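A favour, since you know our structure tokens better than I do. Could you add the entry underneath, on a fresh line?
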Amino acid sequence: MKRRRNRRRQTVQPDEIASNEDKGLHYGPTPPHDPLNKTQSQQILKAVFELMRETGVEFEPDPKVLSLFRAAGCDVSDTGLVKFPANVVQGALDSMAKSVKLWNRPATEFIEIDNRHT
């Protein structure tokens, strides 16, 4: 019985990639990576909001920083414990960047990371 030889994937060398090609772009349909269903995701988010509201996060008690948290509507103790109401956490999530660019060291090329790129 003969064994089949595994064919190695051909790799594309950097000089073979067209300079105008969108690096990292998904070609064709890519199935979403969803290890959790919608109900499980909602349960995790609910727990996170509750932890941020009830337990909070402790910061170094810098008066300038703590005053910024107070101005944003957070409950701040003098020891640096900050409790975040749900609207503050949701506002922070809503204002996040939807993509990010990763640059090479000389800052001449980048790849974009978003829902269309790996």
Notes: The beta strands are 57-58, 75-76, 81-83, 100-103, 110-113. The helical segments are 38-54, 63-72, 86-94. DSSP finds three helices and five strands in the chain.
